[in-house]
Amino acid sequence: MAIDCSASSLAAAANCFSCVVPIGSQLPLQTYLIAQIALNLGAIASADPAVLMSDPNVAKFMQTIPPGLQLSVQNVLLCTLVNK
Fold first, then answer.
1. 3-state SS string for the chain
2. 6 φ, ψ to 5°?
3. How far apart are CA 79 and CA 3, in angstroms?
4. pLDDT score of 15
5. SS3 of 80, please?
6. What is the pLDDT along the chain (84 residues), one digit of tens a residue?
7. Residue ranges per domain, the chain?
8. Distant-in-sequence, close-in-space partners of 46: CB < 8 Å, separation ≥ 6
9. How far is the C-alpha of 68 from the C-alpha of 8, rounded, in Å?
10. Distance in angstroms (rounded) separating the CA atoms of residues 20 and 23
């Protein structure tokens, strides 16, 4: 089933999560879920945070994508994934 990835649709769908998951926990929860998806797809060997942070690609992404845009990039990638 395709999911509408328009900004307004995503904002409406996310609204119910913001009531349940505190603001400070949303990013760690999202990172955990993405790691679990990658692990289940066989794209990574470990979802351990220390192992993930030691990957040289993490530093490359942190240098290349400004902090203010990282969440937007994640949302686009997640929408792409969910609709595959």
1. CCCCCCHHHHHHHHHHHHHHCCHHHHHHHHHHHHHHHHHHCCCCCCCCHHHHHHCHHHHHHHHHCCHHHHHHHHHHHHHHHHCC
2. -70, 155
3. 8
4. 83
5. helix
6. 788 888 898 888 888 778 888 888 888 888 898 999 999 989 989 999 999 999 999 889 889 999 889 888 888 888 888 887
7. 22-82
8. 39, 52
9. 19
10. 9
Give the residue carrying structure tokens 């998806």.
Answer: 37
5, two tokens: 């990835």
Token pair for 6 = 């328009």
40 token code pair: 């289940």
> How far apart, in whole angstroms, are the C-alpha atoms of residue 28 and residue 83?
23
Tokens (6 digits) for 15: 């609204």
